């Protein structure tokens, strides 16, 4: 999308050469001939260090906020960081104003809700896309992303691409890191969704209070026009009570009492292939059957329905469409083995997510419940014994294994997990993840369920500085084929 730099910057009172450029780039390594390089402060270093490299690679113009340069291609704008969100949005033609947008934040459930929104939209013949942990684009054909929520420069480029493809609606995961680092500045969401707040990312935020405050940023007036909040969550209830935007809550029937606009569930019945429950709203009651495991998936679906309803889509049509939803890749995804054992791959990598996954599967399990999991290295060590304690409480057999050990010793991480368990507990340690999974499946009996938690959709395992190819879902399909012979 060629843009005249002189006209673009001139609208903001900035004098520049009469150049036509293709793209804005934050990463100097991606700069090509005719691009504009934005040399600003990053999380760890300032882009000014890479100006020479960008120019050597063909940058037509460099915008930066500091330094002195004797090169007409480098424009120093002291207020650049404050101006940049609007500059970038203008460059790409203000794409966010041409789309309906839903921003989703919270510890767990963001990817599932984004996917369910995309699926519901498809079932209602609405062209939609997602941006998040699993990538961006149409939910069944995603392009990978390095971060759950990209920087607003990349976001505006992605949104401009969606507009070109005639996408009408986008559901975006908004991480706490992105909110603190102002990666979504310049975007105004039509709906902001809050899922829950449980322990995670304390290595970055330092405390649960700071973590919650980061999530709450999405619900400020300069970020979103309306809100959908899970009031079954303690922090969510507090957020809802202080919300000044048009609000719809969701959660258990008891939690929704006192709110004018709500989607509440009750009378949950676990079925072999999903669940059934009563859905109540200010518009009346409905009976809804979902082909999904877990009460948390009920909450995720209600969040998706509520967000779309906030945008004006009729509730009865959304509820009817919800019966056709399917599981998100790597989120409570089932693999059925020939000896009548079901393996479930789930991304659960926090104490709350692991507990919810195990509790959900217990309701569907006729035999023993197995749990194979680990914890990431160089991350919040405090959650390791908590996850060990929860696994012992809710599973019958546990195999502790590797997740992404990074620079830490795998056995040391496993020992940290085991420290939260009874010394004579029914667990074992197998550091090789594939071996641990196969051991659980070979040991499991008719009617057992094996939860393999932590990796979900991921296709790499980080060991030291190396990123090894590892597709847990692909490995499950391989084992199903091998054990069927």
Task: Describe the overall structure.
Its cofactor is Mg(2+). Meso-2,6-diaminopimelate binds at residues 379, 403-406, 454, 458. Belongs to the MurCDEF family. MurE subfamily. ATP binds at residues 106-112. It holds the Pfam family Mur_ligase_M. By secondary structure, the chain is an alpha/beta fold. The protein folds into 3 domains: 3-91, Udp-n-acetylmuramoylalanyl-d-glutamate--2,6- Diaminopimelate Ligase, Chain: A, domain 1; 95-322, Mur-like, catalytic domain (UDP-N-acetylmuramoyl-L-alanine:D-glutamate ligase, 3-Layer(aba) Sandwich); 333-483, Alpha-Beta Complex (Protein-Tyrosine Phosphatase, Chain A). It is 32% helix and 24% strand. It contains 16 helices and 25 strands. The strands form 5 sheets. It has an 11-stranded mixed β-sheet, with helices on both faces. Strands 18-19-23-20-21-22 form a 6-stranded mixed β-sheet, with helices on both faces. α13 (383-394) links the parallel β20 and β21. α10 (295-310) runs antiparallel to α11 (315-322), α12 runs parallel beside α13 and α13 (383-394) packs across α14 (410-418). The longest helix is centred in the middle third of the chain and has 16 residues, at 295-310. The protein is globular, with a radius of gyration of 24 Å. The mean pLDDT is 93.
């Amino acid at each position: 999308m060629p843009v005249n730099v002189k006209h673009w910057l001139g609208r903001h009172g900035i004098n520049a050469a009469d150049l036509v450029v293709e793209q804005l780039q934050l990463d100097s390594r991606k700069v090509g001939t005719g691009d504009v390089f934005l040399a600003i402060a990053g999380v760890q270093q300032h882009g000014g260090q890479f100006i020479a490299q960008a120019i050597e690679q063909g940058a037509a113009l460099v915008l930066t906020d500091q330094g002195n340069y004797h090169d007409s291609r480098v424009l120093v704008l002291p207020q650049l960081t404050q101006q940049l969100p609007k500059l970038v949005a203008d460059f790409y033609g203000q794409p966010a104003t041409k789309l309906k947008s839903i921003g989703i934040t919270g510890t767990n459930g963001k990817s599932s809700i984004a996917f369910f929104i995309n699926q519901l939209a498809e079932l209602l013949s609405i062209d939609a896309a997602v941006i998040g942990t699993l990538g961006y684009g149409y939910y069944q054909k995603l392009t990978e992303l390095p971060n759950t929520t990209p920087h607003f420069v990349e976001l505006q480029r992605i949104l401009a691409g969606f507009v070109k493809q005639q996408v009408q609606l986008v559901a975006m995961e908004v991480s706490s890191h992105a909110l603190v680092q102002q990666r979504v500045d310049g975007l105004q969401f039509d709906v902001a969704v809050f899922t829950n707040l449980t322990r995670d990312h304390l290595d970055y935020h330092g405390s649960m209070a700071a973590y919650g405050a980061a999530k709450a940023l999405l619900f400020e007036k300069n970020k979103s026009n309306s809100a959908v909040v899970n009031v079954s969550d303690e922090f969510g209830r507090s957020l809802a009570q202080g919300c000044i935007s048009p609000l719809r809550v969701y959660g258990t029937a008891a939690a929704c009492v006192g709110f004018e606009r709500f989607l509440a569930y009750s009378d949950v019945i676990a079925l072999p292939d999903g669940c059934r429950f009563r859905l109540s709203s200010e518009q009346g009651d409905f009976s809804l059957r979902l082909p999904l495991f877990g009460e948390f998936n009920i909450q995720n679906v209600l969040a998706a329905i509520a967000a779309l309803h906030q945008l004006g889509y009729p509730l009865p049509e959304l509820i009817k469409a919800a019966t056709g939803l399917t599981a998100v890749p790597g989120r409570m995804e089932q693999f059925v083995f020939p000896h009548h054992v079901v393996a479930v791959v789930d991304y659960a990598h926090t104490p709350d997510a692991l507990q919810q996954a195990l509790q959900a599967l217990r309701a569907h399990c006729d035999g023993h419940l197995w749990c194979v999991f680990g914890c990431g290295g160089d991350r919040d060590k405090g959650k390791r014994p908590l996850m060990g304690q929860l696994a012992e409480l809710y599973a019958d057999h546990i195999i502790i294994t590797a997740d992404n050990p990074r620079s830490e010793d795998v056995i040391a991480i496993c020992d940290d997990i085991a420290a939260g368990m009874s010394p004579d507990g029914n667990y074992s340690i197998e550091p090789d993840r594939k071996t641990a999974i196969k051991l659980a499946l070979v040991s499991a009996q008719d009617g057992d369920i094996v939860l393999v938690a932590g990796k979900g959709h991921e296709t790499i395992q980080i060991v030291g500085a190396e990123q090894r190819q590892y597709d847990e879902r692909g490995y499950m399909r391989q084992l199903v084929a091998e054990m069927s012979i």
